[in-house]
Write a structure and sequence with these properties.
Elements (H helix, E strand, L loop, with lengths): L1 H11 L6 E7 L5 H14 L5 E8 L4 H14 L5 E4 L5 H10 L13 E6 L2 H9 L4 E4 L2 H16 L14 E2 L35
């Protein structure tokens, strides 16, 4: 997921328009945050027009992201991109940019490019409002589907893999209203949720 965010920045910045990146990490003592950091760093490694100038340990807390954004822009006004490990910190990021008078919609001069992970309601609202550019979706419904299918396959005597690596779709303003995103599923109306079918671990017998 971090790699998808890094690839987005590689594609959307250039030597003529270099990225000065603030990274707002989750708890850096946790494997989840470390993996999201590793993927992003690997994607931008060797790209001379992308520079990560500061890394803040937000510890998955919006309040820490809020404080961190203000401190970072106080230190470096040239920051023009933010990579955050999770939408759970997005409200703090948005509010921090607002306090620093740096909250500008996409397409307008001074816009801060924001890439995130998860695709929850806060992140999706950020895209709809024009402040968030891309989110690497982390779909818990799909995760559950793969897990249940794997258990059913095992009970049917089929061979299952030790690991299943899922594709990471990227949500942008162009596709934010697609019904496939887990945040767009009708809340509480489980009977009308689509079957999360995929090729990695299909329903046994198919």
């Amino acid at each position: 997921m971090g790699r998808a965010c890094g690839e987005y920045m590689v594609e959307n910045f250039s030597k003529e328009n270099p990225a000065v990146v603030l990274e707002i990490a989750g708890g850096l003592q946790q494997d989840g945050a470390q993996q999201r950091q590793k993927g992003f760093h690997e994607a931008v490694e060797g790209i001379d027009y992308i520079e990560i100038v500061q890394i803040i340990d937000g510890n998955w807390e919006s309040s820490k992201a809020f404080d961190g954004v203000q401190d970072a822009f106080e230190r470096n006004s040239k920051i023009n991109a933010i990579y955050t490990h999770s939408d759970i910190m997005m409200q703090g990021i948005i509010e921090g940019l607002k306090v620093k008078d740096r909250l500008v919609p996409a397409g307008e001069e001074g816009h801060i490019v924001i890439c995130s992970i998860d695709g929850d309601q806060t992140g999706m609202k950020g895209i709809r409002d024009g402040y968030v550019d891309a989110i690497a979706e982390n779909n818990p419904v799909m995760h559950a589907a793969v897990a249940v299918n794997a258990m059913l396959a095992y009970l049917h005597g089929e061979t299952i893999e030790e690991d299943y690596l899922l594709e990471v779709p990227v949500i942008t303003a162009e596709n934010v209203e697609d019904s496939q995103w887990w945040a767009n599923l009708p809340e509480g109306d489980f009977d009308n949720w689509p079957v999360m079918e995929q090729d990695f671990c299909p329903i046994p017998g198919k």
